[in-house]
Amino acid sequence: MTSVDPWSSCEIQKLQLEDTAIKSILEKKLNSADRPSWQEIALESPATKQYWALWDSLQLKDGVLYPRWQSDDGSSCRWQLIFPKSRIPEVLRKTHDSASGGHFGIMKTLRRIRKRFYWGRLRADVEKWCRECQICRARKRLKTRTEGRLQRYNVGAPFERMALYILGPFPVTKSICPSINGLFYEAA
C-alpha cells in the first residue's frame, strides 16, 4: 500500500476475500506457494482463470494480493493492487470524476488507474465509465457523418439531366388510370 491509499491492508484483504473471483486465488496463495493445477481451476469463473494465469507474478504483501509487473529491460517494477469488483466504481470516480481526475478521457484515466490498480476487464470498465459520464458527453462533440448539402444543378438544355423515381408496388385497383403503376419521370 502507498500512503495515499485510503484503505488499510485488513480492509483490502477482507474485500478481496469477499470477491468470488479473487477469493479462491488468494486462499490458494495463502496456503501454498505452488501453482494450482488446471483441474482445480477449470470449473472457476473466467475472472478467476485470468488471475490464475498471473500466478507467477502474484505476491502477497500483508495478506493482500498484488501482481508485480517488471519493465522489459528489468530496470523498474510496479506493484498493482488487485482491486475487488465491489469497489471499482469508487476508484473510477476518484480517478476520472474528481477534481484531480479532470474528466481527461479513456487513455489518461486508464494510465492513472494502471499505475496502482489491477482487475480483470479494467479497460472495458474504464471505457464504459467514460462513455457514460454525463459531463464528458456534454462537452464532447458527437461524431456524426455529415451528409452533402442539397444544391441546384444548372442545366443548359432539356433532358441534359434526368431523375427517375420508382415507387411501388401499389395494390391493384379498378381505377380509371391503372397505367400509373409507380413509374415517374422527371426532367431536372
UniProtKB/TrEMBL annotation:
Q: Which Pfam families match?
A: Integrase_H2C2
Task: Pinpoint the Integrase zinc-binding domain residues.
Answer: 84-140
Q: Which Gene3D superfamilies match?
A: 1.10.340.70
Q: Which stretch is the leader sequence? A: none
Query: Superkingdom of this entry's organism?
Result: Eukaryota
Name of the protein described by the UniProt record = Integrase zinc-binding domain-containing protein
Q: Where does this protein come from, organism-wise?
A: Araneus ventricosus
